[in-house]
Amino acid sequence: MRTTNIIICFLLLAFSLSSCVLKTSDELKKNEIWDKLKVYFSPPIEYRNVYGNYRSPLLFANGKKVESARDWQKRRDEILSDWTKKMGEWPPLLEKSELEFLDSIKRENFKQFKIRLRWMPNENTEGYLLIPENKEKMPAVITVYYEPETSIGYGNKPFRDYAYQLAKRGFVTLSLGTAKATQAKIYSLFYPSVENATIAPLSTLAYAAANAWYALAKIEKVDTARIGIMGHSFGGKWAMFASCLFDKFTCAVWSDPGIVFDESRESVNYWEPYYLGYQTPPWRKRGVITEENPATGLYVELRKEGYDLHELHALMAPRSFLVSGGSEDPIERWVPLNHTIAVNKVLGYKDRVGMTNRPTHSGTLESNEQIYLFFEYFLK
Questions:
Q1: Percentage helix, strand, coil, to 5, in the chain?
Q2: Residue 133 contacts residue 107 (beta carbons within 8 Å)
Q3: Listing from the earlier edge strand, what are the strands of the sheet with 123-132?
Q4: How many CB atoms lie within 10 A of CB 187?
Q5: pLDDT of 197-213, one tens digit each?
Q6: Contact, 208 vs 120, CB < 8 A?
Q7: pLDDT tens digits for 111-168?
Q8: pTM passes above 0.85
Q9: SS (H, E, C) 340-357
Q10: What is the C-alpha to C-alpha distance for residues 262 and 238, in angstroms, rounded to an integer?
């Protein structure tokens, strides 16, 4: 009996020591990743505590200031309610939505499935689910773009193969896109129809992504507490609205979408009818706002009343997000981002808002590596 007890004690000690070694190893790796990331989570000195002309999200509509986390929850509800009234109420979320598997292939260290998904009450879509070879539950990332093939590495668009690269790194990824709408050059989703949409298209895209979250969360190997979302350009706008309006996304990356209104930049084109400028067709000619080609729809109202997207950013707090900034999101965008930093400070958090910068709109090897490190740190 005594020998048995000694053996049991020895085994327990060995298990405890191995757990400590594993934990220490994980902590060291996490610290190494943070050492590479931390410089991107603090504004440069010239932009520190600079808030510009943006109205503080910490002010209630009646002018009262948010002083506590409890106050912020009320203010957050006020912001979300206000923007929802402006953009239109979502239909009920499709919480029972599931992925339908169409076919599969083996690729490197993961399996790729073509899937079908009900993401709108009146519309299905097709995309790709990539599942790494791993017995444990894994973090997951939804990637969104004009079509789902680019993100899985099909096609000729370098540095936009986010789903493929993340899958190789041990993330379950779901690649989605608006392929049919893109082919028709209307790009977005419209509910209940393109002829009579009652929701701003960017909000409709967010709703579709929320429904995709519920379907992805049903995959056995997905850890539902660790699901992020990301996209580039059009997909960056989509990922930004989805993560801000649907708080089940753990974290997000927005790659050069133009994170605030900026009418000097043709690609920061929230005024277009497939974003926030929807009107009943026929639509304005695509391009910059001019007297001959004015903005339309909700966008005009938002600008007239002094709204900007930094209020939506604040809905992320205290969840983490990274702006992978390029030509449309230069370093000056720290000014609106400072407002979310201020919200996190009230909540007792820091290092939750990050931005990297590059000169080009398209991503680079370096900027993409920063994205993957972000997900490694905040999801793994």
A1: 40, 20, 40
A2: no
A3: 99-107, 110-120, 123-132, 172-177, 138-145, 222-232, 251-255, 320-325, 353-357
A4: 17
A5: 999 999 999 999 999 99
A6: yes
A7: 999 999 999 999 999 999 999 999 899 999 999 999 999 999 998 888 999 999 999 9
A8: yes
A9: HHHHHHHHCCCCCEEEEE
A10: 17
